[in-house]
């Protein structure tokens, strides 16, 4: 089995991409999704968030929600808004956000490679979210949300992608957030062969985002394989929709924290207790950490710069990450939040919102204290995955986000 293979993609008909393309299904709440589809009957949110077409308050995990998504998908195909390519293709995908540009490949990645650990993960999944994605794939008969994968930058792959992207794109749209999405279909047999062989030579791919989608694809494949006495390994369910970028083009932003209360401490007591593990310095400006081991803290209208004491940095690959240092030296022992996955006293704020969002949350009175972090590096992410370890929750925030609706992978 190839690590990545071409497939007959389902994508917007010529001239319809602007009508279809939508943000990823999981970056907005239901109210925001309902607002986004107003006046947009062909938005892909009707497929990825079909509860927007059902009464408010509908359980998003109810069977009728998945059925509505299937109905909307079939309607968009019947109306010619979405069309399926006639021959297997790869798709070169370029994202442009301001001065940042990243160019990768849309392909079908091997479930077998994922199950064997050649496609490496770095996060735990939650059963409820995984079950949701299984029902979504099974009901739609397609994978519509891509898994975001990364490969260690490879000169040959990068050169082929750049060659393809010199021509005119098949799709070129700018989303509401200003991010430009360009797509080139690649069906030339020689280019397809070169890309397939180049990816096969890679030691590994890494899941950057989409752990629930990739886990769900593995479960769907296992169920269909067990139910198919004529299974060959070539069936489309043996692969999952992926967008794969080189690691040196990734842009990881900070993933910051806000906490509701000081765990019974007064602000003065809390700041005094910090000095066991950190050097604490008041700051005149918002603190955007410039290096690992440095943190910003916003408390009662005042910013502080926190630097972890060297003796508090362990040798362990995961424990020395900034998200771990903050959790293990402050959020857990001082604020009493031992499980940030489940404790509603903590929330996470993507760096794309800026430090002003942290100030806004604390100044509102709803949150007591905020922390800004230095972004996790791609090198750290890959090292953790290579070691078979798991990163703490909310360790990475990738920007720009992939678009939904550009290409879907139909399970025949």
Q: Keyphrases for this structure?
A:
412 residues; alpha+beta; Conserved hypothetical protein from pyrococcus furiosus pfu- 392566-001, domain 2; 2 domains; nine-stranded mixed β-sheet; six-stranded antiparallel β-sheet; 21 strands
Describe the structure.
The protein is of the alpha+beta class and 412 residues long. 31% of the residues lie in helices and 24% in strands. The chain has 13 helices and 21 strands. It has helices at 17-20, 30-36, 45-48, 63-78, 111-116, 127-140, 155-164, 189-200, 211-227, 267-274, 322-331, 355-363, 378-386; strands at residues 4-5, 10-12, 82-84, 90-97, 100-110, 119-120, 142-143, 147-151, 171-174, 180-186, 205-209, 239-246, 252-253, 255-259, 278-283, 294-299, 302-308, 346-350, 369-372, 397-398, 409-410. Strands 1, 4, 5, 6, 8, 9, 10, 11 and 12 form a nine-stranded mixed β-sheet that branches. The chain is globular, with a radius of gyration of 22 Å.
Short description:
With 412 residues, the protein is of the alpha+beta class. The protein has helices spanning 17-20, 30-36, 45-48, 63-78, 111-116, 127-140, 155-164, 189-200, 211-227, 267-274, 322-331, 355-363, 378-386, and strands at 4-5, 10-12, 82-84, 90-97, 100-110, 119-120, 142-143, 147-151, 171-174, 180-186, 205-209, 239-246, 252-253, 255-259, 278-283, 294-299, 302-308, 346-350, 369-372, 397-398, 409-410.
């Amino acid at each position: 089995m190839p690590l990545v293979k071409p497939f007959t993609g389902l994508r917007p008909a010529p001239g319809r991409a602007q009508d279809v393309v939508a943000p990823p299904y999981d970056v907005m709440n239901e109210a925001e999704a309902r607002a986004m589809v107003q006046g947009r009957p062909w938005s892909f949110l009707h497929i990825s968030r079909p509860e927007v077409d059902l009464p408010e308050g509908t359980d998003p995990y109810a069977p009728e929600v998945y059925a509505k998504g299937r109905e909307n998908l079939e309607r968009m195909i019947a109306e010619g808004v979405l069309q399926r390519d006639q021959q297997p293709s790869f798709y070169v995908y370029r994202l442009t956000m301001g001065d940042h540009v990243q160019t990768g490949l849309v392909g079908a990645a091997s479930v077998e490679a994922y199950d064997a650990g050649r496609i490496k993960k770095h996060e735990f999944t939650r059963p409820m979210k995984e079950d949701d994605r299984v029902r979504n794939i099974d009901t739609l008969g397609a994978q519509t949300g891509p898994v975001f994968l990364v490969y260690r930058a490879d000169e040959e792959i990068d050169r082929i992608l750049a060659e393809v992207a010199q021509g005119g794109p098949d799709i070129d749209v700018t989303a509401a957030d200003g991010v430009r999405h360009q797509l080139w279909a690649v069906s030339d047999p020689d280019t397809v062969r070169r890309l397939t062989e180049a990816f096969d030579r890679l030691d590994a791919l890494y899941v950057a985002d989409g752990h629930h989608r990739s886990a769900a694809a593995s479960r769907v494949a296992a169920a269909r394989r067990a139910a198919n006495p004529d299974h060959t390994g070539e069936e489309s369910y043996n692969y999952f929709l992926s967008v794969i970028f080189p690691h040196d083009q990734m842009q990881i932003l900070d993933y910051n924290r806000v906490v509701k209360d000081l765990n019974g401490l007064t602000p003065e007591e809390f700041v005094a207790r910090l000095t066991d593990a950190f050097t604490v310095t008041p700051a005149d400006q918002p603190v955007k950490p410039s290096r690992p081991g440095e943190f910003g803290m916003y408390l009662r209208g005042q910013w502080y710069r926190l630097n972890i004491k060297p003796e508090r940095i362990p040798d362990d690959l995961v424990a020395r990450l900034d998200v771990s240092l903050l959790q293990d030296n402050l959020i857990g022992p001082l604020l009493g939040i031992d499980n940030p996955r489940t404790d509603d006293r903590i929330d996470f704020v993507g760096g794309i919102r800026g430090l002003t969002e942290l100030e806004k949350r604390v100044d509102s009175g709803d949150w007591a204290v905020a922390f800004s972090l230095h972004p996790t590096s791609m090198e750290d992410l890959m090292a953790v995955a290579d070691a078979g370890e798991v990163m703490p929750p909310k360790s990475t925030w990738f920007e720009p986000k992939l678009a939904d609706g550009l290409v879907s992978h139909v399970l025949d």
